[in-house]
Design goal:
The protein has about 625 residues and is an alpha+beta fold. It folds into 3 domains: about 10-140, OB fold (Dihydrolipoamide Acetyltransferase, E2P) (Beta Barrel), CATH 2.40.50.140; about 145-280; about 300-615, 4-Layer Sandwich (Deoxyribonuclease I, Chain A). The protein is about 15% helix and about 30% strand. The protein contains 9 helices and 32 strands. A 6-stranded mixed sheet has the order 19-20-18-17-31-30. It has a 6-stranded mixed sheet with strand order 21-22-23-25-29-26, covered by helices on one side. It is elongated, with a radius of gyration of 27 Å. The model is unreliable at about 1-25 and about 590-615 (pLDDT under 50).
Length: about 625
């Protein structure tokens, strides 16, 4: 039932203004929100809170003070949880009563072990509590949206700082001018426009897109293809996630990195560890012209080695999945001599019936590659124990190799220290020995522990703790010890360590691997090209190829961008990772004095491979 107390027009606004004047007035939205991440009125039941309805959701509505207080530290808006009540209309001026709650999305009663425990809270009025309700007192124009961008407010690049605890603690100093975490909190629930938005992620399966204002200009390390990459000192606090929940998926078609969306408007919310702009109108998308890449044409005198995370490929997958991957491997990836693959599942995928064999998975992929005009590969695989290596229950995820027997010979394979506790509930790496043109090379395929369970960048604990890194570092030490033992037994042996290592080139686990005398070819690339994966709009390198120093001479390296930047619904996208590819010379070990010269030449080599690369 809709209650009308005042007629439409100026009188309701004057009445609302009177509520803010003098002493003993009903509290304003701004006073309730306060100058912190949580309201000082949390747990109290209040009445007479006034605002204009700006957007509706399935379980409530957002309302904003018609005037605001001009304070850059306080939000002018708030969400109202409606319970069983009906909804007002956008543009209604309402007064609301209810309990002030701090709602932590996904964590109503969770503990420290829950992934949502580190989420921030949103301040809301729970009108279902204590008989609280909303009452329509008239109508009002919607407040003008706050403009984010060069012509309005520019978000800080820094997300947070090393406070050493929760930003909800009383000692935390709220600073929207210096920290993106606080910048967006100050706009919680308000109408916001991101000016000149450019997509820095493809649309995900939930209809979300990460964007930067001003077509990305001045906001982080721009990639050559329209995205933004991380650096050791920046994880790009200016990103905003667009959400189509309020306007419907049909209003926001698939978007790729580099597409323009113009000025996008909505109300700012928070969920799943990110601030999200809940769109209230459909944006006009301008195609940025993103095209898939192809690797440089292979040199038959060199060994081609690639790594590709196949995103849970199971033996019972649809034929279209095998055909799509085969097309990528044969054409853009140039059918490498040796392909290290990750996320191979068993023959019946997530059916948990004790099956661990993956011969059907490999066989169907090999058949599809041959049908697409590629070589007839052979595969290297060691089955895991049932449900011992992580991943989806029953799927028995593992790593393996495809190799072209017309180009290389396979000698032997072992799992690397499979009983070491570092691999508990995690994929065990596979080391295989191959011969190319009479030269021996040991290739180690790793898939280190994922980052699931890390505290989020936009979370209550600052700096966020990457809890998963400890196990990855332990895994990296096991791999480094294995490489060291190989080289001690045969100082001339050529070693390649590659795979989805689930961490950045500047991370501690990758530095541990480099400490075993390996060079990370990721660092051949220009800094803004070091990405194989996009998470919440951040381009980042998770897939790497590291080589022993003898293989640096003439090595070329590339990330072949064909998946991560494109919309999840794109039928040509076959994985959430892009594959990485190296062309290597297997030659005698150089004198130690020449290593420095080869390292100095890496940048020039990287330029050469980028010059050879062409779009397809």
């Amino acid at each position: 039932m809709r209650h009308e107390t005042f007629a439409r027009g100026a009188l309701p606004l004057l009445a609302a203004a009177a509520l803010h004047a003098g002493t003993g007035h009903a509290l304003s939205i701004m006073e309730i929100q306060g100058t912190a991440h949580q309201s000082g009125f949390a747990g109290r039941t209040l009445t007479g809170i006034t605002g204009v309805v700006t957007a509706l959701s399935g379980n409530g509505f957002w309302m904003q003070d018609p005037f605001g207080d001009g304070n850059h530290l306080t939000s002018d808006a708030i969400f109202v949880f409606r319970g069983s009540r009906g909804l007002p209309l956008v543009g209604d001026l309402v007064t609301v009563g209810g309990r002030i709650d701090e709602f932590r999305p996904g964590c109503v009663a969770c503990g420290p072990g829950d992934s949502a425990y580190a989420n921030l809270t949103t301040t809301e009025i729970n009108s279902a509590f204590g008989g609280g309700a909303w009452t329509r007192i008239g109508s009002a124009a919607l407040p003008a949206p706050v403009l984010i961008g060069a012509a309005g407010l520019s978000p800080p690049a820094a997300i947070g700082y090393d406070f050493g605890g929760s930003v909800e603690h009383a000692d935390y100093v709220f600073d929207p001018a210096r920290r993106a975490l606080d910048f967006y909190e100050r706009l919680e629930g308000m109408r916001v426009t991101v000016g000149g938005a450019r997509a820095v992620s493809g649309s995900n399966a939930f209809g979300e897109i990460a964007v930067l204002p001003d077509l990305g200009a001045g906001h982080g390390l721009a990639t050559p293809r329209g995205g933004v990459a991380i650096t050791p000192d920046s994880f790009n606090g200016g990103r905003v996630i667009l959400d189509d929940s309020l306007i419907g998926a049909a209003s926001l078609p698939g978007v790729n990195v580099g597409d323009g969306l113009g000025n996008v408007t909505g109300v700012l919310d928070y969920s799943f560890a990110n601030y999200k702009l809940m769109l209230t109108q459909a944006p006009a998308v301008t195609n940025g012209g993103l095209r898939r890449e192809s690797a440089a044409v292979a040199d038959p005198a060199r060994l081609s080695v690639a790594s590709y995370n196949l995103e849970n490929l199971a033996g019972n997958a649809a034929q279209a999945r095998f055909d799509g991957l085969a097309g990528q491997i044969v054409n853009p990836l140039r059918a490498p001599d040796i392909l290290a693959v990750q996320e191979i599942q068993d023959n019946n995928g997530a059916t948990d019936n004790g099956t661990v064999a993956a011969d059907l998975t490999y066989g169907r992929l090999i058949g599809a590659i041959a049908a697409a005009g590629g070589p007839t590969y052979r595969y290297v695989n060691i089955d895991p124990a049932d449900n011992a290596d992580g991943g989806a229950p029953g799927a028995n995820i593992r790593v393996g190799f495809l190799y072209n027997p017309e180009r290389v010979s396979f000698a032997d394979a072992v799992r690397v220290a499979p009983e070491d506790p570092a691999w508990e509930d995690s994929r065990k790496p596979l080391a295989a020995t191959f011969l190319f043109d009479g030269q021996e090379v040991v290739i180690i395929n790793g898939h280190l522990r994922s980052k699931l369970g890390d505290e989020p960048l936009f979370g209550r604990f600052q700096d966020p703790v990457p809890h998963s890194e400890a196990q990855r570092d332990a895994q990296a030490r096991v791999l480094a010890d294995f490489v060291t033992a190989l080289r001690a037994d045969d100082p001339a042996v050529s070693v390649v360590l590659l795979g989805d290592l689930n961490d950045f080139q500047f991370s501690a686990p990758l530095r541990t691997l480099e400490g075993a005398g390996l060079a990370n070819l990721t660092e051949i690339l220009a800094e803004n090209e070091r990405y194989t994966y996009i998470h919440d709009g951040n381009g980042q390198a998770l897939d790497h190829i590291l080589v022993s120093l003898d293989l640096l001479n003439g090595a070329t390296y590339d990330v072949v961008h064909m998946n991560s930047e494109f919309a999840a619904a794109d039928p040509l996208r076959q994985s959430d990772h892009d594959p990485v590819l190296a062309y290597l010379n297997l030659s005698p070990v150089p004198e130690p004095g020449s290593w420095a010269m080869m390292l100095a030449g890496l940048v020039l080599v990287g330029r050469a491979i980028r010059a050879c690369r062409r779009a397809s």
